[in-house]
Amino acid sequence: MAYKNSSKPNDEKMLAICDDPIFDYLLITLDELEKQVESFRDTAKKLQEDKQEILEKINKVSESQAISDLTEEKKDELELYIDRLCKRCITVELSVITVRSTHQEKAILKIKDILKKLKADIQSDTPGTREKITRYLNTCTTDGDGTLDYHFQAILLDCAAEDQKEVKKRLQALWSALVHSEKSVDELCKEFS
Question: Which residues pair with 99 in a beta bridge?
Answer without folding.
Answer: none
